[in-house]
Amino acid sequence: MSSLLHQPAGLLFTFVLFIVFPFADAFVYRRLQAVLHVYLWNILSIWTLTLLAVALLYRYGFTLTQFGQNLGVYARNILTVIAVVILVVAVIFLNTHQKRKMTPEQYAEQIENIRKLIPATPVERLLAIPLAFTAGFCEEFLYRGYLLNIAASATKSLRVGLLTSSILFGFAHLYQGRKGVIGTSLGGIVFGLIFLGSRSLLPGHLLHTAMDLTQFLALSKKARSQ
């Protein structure tokens, strides 16, 4: 897998995806004002990168199965699902506890960086569904399936692959500010462990999509109540 980095096309794609794109995404995010425009940009740009990655893998003789796009091992998936359920409950509890301790000013500051991702109209809420699916499918494939495997293969270390993919996953959310980068990096470690535990991207696809969609709906409800 690390041989991809020895190919000019593979090296260029990896550089664009994990270095150029985060800065370009942050730049576009600051320029766009309408929520629908932000949604469309995210859906189109991330799917474009994903399709390019798929084309690159097939160009050099790899299959999606080698990069985690499979059903995994049944027993591993069962254990992973149990762990994920426990994790989700813990995250919900911690988030609720943290929000109760936050002042209105702190909460407003936290929300400001993602203001243009909060759906407020029926059309925006409808488009939030494919956006959540895009994040759940494409980001897991790019950062866990592609990058984690490439980095682990190149360094001969799963730990380095996990850490590298998690940091760059956080960096891809540069538009959310420093706290957003740190938070998504930690989330990347969790998703990476889920992937390594199940040997499949499927649990991560489902969890990531569900978490994003739940967050969109919760933020939308909060916006309507204010």
Could you characterize the architecture of this molecule?
- The chain has 226 residues and is mainly α.
- It has one domain.
- It is built from eight helices and no strands.
- The chain is globular and about 45 Å long.
- The N and C termini lie far apart (50 Å).
- The model has no long low-confidence stretch (mean pLDDT 84).
Can you give me a brief rundown of this structure?
The chain is mainly alpha-helical and 226 residues long. The protein has helices at residues 8-31, 35-59, 74-101, 104-112, 122-155, 158-171, 177-198, 202-225.
What are the defining features of this structure?
8 helices; mainly alpha; 226 residues
Largest sheet: none
Mean pLDDT: 84
Query: Into which percent range does the helicity of residues fall?
Result: over 70%
Count up the helices. 8
Measured by DSSP, the beta-strand proportion falls in: under 5%
